[in-house]
Amino acid sequence: MKRLLVITLVALFSVGLFGCTAASNSPSTTDETDSSTNKNTNSESDDGEGPTLTYWYWADNSDYSDLMQNIITEFNETNDKGITVVGEEYPWDGGGFMETLFTASVGGGAPDVATFKLTSTPLFTANDLLANLDDYIENWDKKDDIDPNIYDIMKTASGTDSIYLMPWNTQVLYVYYRPSIFEEAGVEVPTTYEEFLTAIEKTTMDTDGDGQTDIYGFGMRGATGGQEPWGSFIHARGGSFDDLTSEASIRGMQDFIDIYENGYVPKTATTDGFNEIIANFKSGHTAMTIHHTGSSADMVETFGDDVSAFPFPAGEGQWTSMGDTENVIFESSEHKDAAFEWVSYLAAEKGQEDWTVATGNVPVSKTVQELDFFQENEFMKASIDGMSYAGIVPIKDTTTEWINTIWPNTIASALLGERSADEAMEILHEGLHEE
Amino acid sequence: MSKKSFANKCFTLYLPLGLILTFLIFPFYWTFVTSIKPEHELYGATVTYWPKDLTFASYQKLFGEFNFLLPMFNSLLVATITTVVTLTVSTSAAYAFTRFDFKGKRIFMSLFLTNNMFPNVLLLIPLFAIMRSVNLLYTPLSLVVAYATFTIPFSVWMLTGYLKDLPNSLEEAAMIDGANRVKAFFNVVLPVLMPSIIATGVYIFIQSWNEYTFAVLFTNEATRTIPVTLNNLIGQLGVQWDLLTAGGIITIIPVCVLFFFAQKQLIEGLTAGSVKG
C-alpha cells in the first residue's frame, strides 16, 4: 500500500512537472526569442538586408522537393525586400505532418510559414496559432486574382468570417467520360443535371446482345471517399450538407439510389472505392466516373484521345468537391509582412505558375489559369470551370467518423434497398450535425 | 546416412526450415529486387520476380541527388552516442542498485520505471519545449537526450537483472586480493557482464536507429535521421518505391553488421541468468 502511494505520488509529480514546463514554454505566454534554427530564422539576417523566414512544407516526391527549393531560391534572389526563405521539408506521413506542425506550434517552435490542409483549421485556430490574414488580403493588389468562392471556403474551414489560410493549389472533381461510348449511345456532353442523368441511362449498354450489361453509364463510388461525388447529386437537386433532410437533398439521394437500382452502375458500387472506379473506367466497363486531375495522365495513357472531361452539370444547384493545399502564417512569426510576401508569391505570382505547371495541380490564380498550359488541357479546364462552385464537406468534430463509417454504411444499406432515401438522409444528417 | 533417414531429415528439418527462411527472407528479397528494377518494370502491369533490365540507378540517385549519406551519418552519430551514454549511465546505476543498500533504493527504482509508463507522444510537447529553451533543438544532441529518457530506465532494469545473478563473491575475492571497488568493477565485473552489456547496447542502438516520432520533430534538414528521410519518400499521392527500397536496403546493412559481430555475445547476454547453478 505504501509502495503504491509512493508510485502514485511520483507519477503525479512527474505529470505536474511536465505540465508546468510545457505551460511556461507555450507560445501564448512567451515572447522569448526562438532557439537554434528558429533563432536564426526569426531575426534579421546577418547582413541586415531583410528578414529570414522558416517555411515547412511536404513534397510528394524528390522531384517536387527540388522544385520547391528552386522556387525558394528564385524568390530569395528576386524579391526586392531582401527576404530570405529557408525551406525545411517534413514528411507528409499520411497526414502526420499536421500533427508535427501542431506539436511544434504548441511547444513554441512553429515556423513562420507552413503548407496546410483545410481540415486542420479548427484545431489551429482554436489554439490561436494562426495569423489572421483578413487585412493582408484586403490590401493585396492581387486579391481579385483568386475566385471569391475560394476565400469563402477558407472562411468556412475556420468556422469564422476571417481568413487564416492563403489559397495555393487545388484538386477539383469533374466527370471523366469516353467520347467513343457517347458517340455509340448517341449522347452529347451534358450541360444540365437532367441531361447528365439521361446520359448515364443511355450509355448503359449491352454491346454484344447477350442480355447482360457490358458498359455501365457511371462508375459510382460507394466506399469511403464517395461522399464527394455523392454531394454533387445532392446539390444538383438543390439540397446541401447543411440540411440533408430537406426535400431537395432527399430527391438527390433518390436519384443516387435509382441509378443503382436501375442497373446503370456496376453492382459492386456499394463497396467500390477509388481503385475500383478507376479500374472499371480504364477497362471500359464504365462510360463515366468522377475524379480529379490526379488520374488524368493515367487515363490519357490508357485511352489516348478517347477520354475527356466535363464539369459536373448544374441542376437546381451546383457543387463539386475540392481537395486543397494552402499556406498559413503563424501568429508567433515576428515577420508576418514578409511572410505574406512569400505566401502571396506562391498564391498568385511566379511561385504559383512554377508549382502548378510542374505538379499538375489546379492553380488558384486566375492569371495562371489563363495560361495556354491550363486552357489547352481539357482536364485542367474542367477543374477550373468547377472552381467557382467547388466546396468541402463541413469540417466538424463528427466529420471523420461520418466520412469513414456513417456515410459508406448508410449509403450501402440505401442502395441495397434496406433503407429508404428519407431514412438514410435522416441518419446522415444526424451523424454529421449531432453536437 | 541411409536413404530413409535422409528423406526423413529433409521433411522434418530442411523443408520446414526452408519454408520459415523463405517466409522471413522474402520481404528483404522483394525490397532488394524492387530497388534494382527500372521504372517501367517497377510500375508495369506484369510482376517480375527478378528484373529483366537490372539497374542501380536508384542507389546512384539516393547517394547523389538525394544525399542519403547525411542522414546515415546523423543516424549513426545519434545511435552511437545514445548507446555509449545510456550504457555508461545504466551500468553504473544498475551496479549501485545491486551492490549497495541505501535509503530510497526502491523508490528510485520505481522512479526509473515511471518514465516508461508515459506514452512517447505525451512526452513530445514537454520535451520539445525543454529542448527549445535549452537551445538543443535541431541538434543531434536533442535526440540523444530524448532517447535517453526511455533507453536509460529500461537498460537499468535490464542490467540490474543481469547483475543480480552475478555473485558478490567475485568482487569480494578481488578486493581481498587487494583491488579497490573501482578496480574490481573494471577488472572483474565488467568482463563477466560484457555479453549482457552488448545485448543491452544492441537494443539501445536499434531503438535509436529506427526511432521516428522524436526524430521528425527535433531535427531539421541538416540533422535528419534515416527514418525521417525515408518517410519523405512517401507522399500524399504516391510513393517513390525505387528510392524507398534502396534506402531500406542501405539502412539495414549497419544493423546486420552489428548483429554479425555481436551475435555470440547477444545470445549469451539474452540467456544470462536463465540457468541457475
Automatic annotation (TrEMBL), chain A:
Signal peptide: 1-22
Chain spans, region Disordered: 24-48
Feature: compositional bias, Low complexity: 24-43
Keyword Translocase carried by entry: no
Name of one Pfam family that matches: SBP_bac_8
Keyword check for Signal: yes
Keyword tags: Signal, Sugar transport, Transport
Chain ranges passing through the membrane: none
Superkingdom of source: Bacteria
InterPro entries (alphabetical): Bact_solute-bd_prot1, SBP
UniProt similarity note: Belongs to the bacterial solute-binding protein 1 family.
Protein name: Multiple sugar transport system substrate-binding protein
Species this chain originates from: Gracilibacillus halotolerans
From TrEMBL, chain B:
Location (main, coarse): membrane
PROSITE patterns reported for this sequence: ABC_TM1
Any Pfam family hit: BPD_transp_1
Cell location: Cell membrane
Its membrane topology: Multi-pass membrane protein
N-terminal signal peptide: none
Keyword Oxidoreductase included in the entry's annotation: no
Entry annotated with the keyword Transmembrane helix: yes
Any one GO BP annotation for this protein: transmembrane transport
Xref: InterPro entries: BP-dep_ABC_trans_perm, MetI-like, MetI-like_sf
Residue intervals of the ABC transmembrane type-1 domain: 72-262
Highest taxon in the source lineage: Bacteria
Gene Ontology cellular component terms for the protein in this record: plasma membrane
Keywords on record: Cell membrane, Membrane, Sugar transport, Transmembrane, Transmembrane helix, Transport
Transmembrane segments: 12-32, 76-97, 118-138, 144-163, 184-206, 243-262
Family statement drawn from the similarity comment of this UniProt entry: Belongs to the binding-protein-dependent transport system permease family.
Name of the protein this chain belongs to: Multiple sugar transport system permease protein
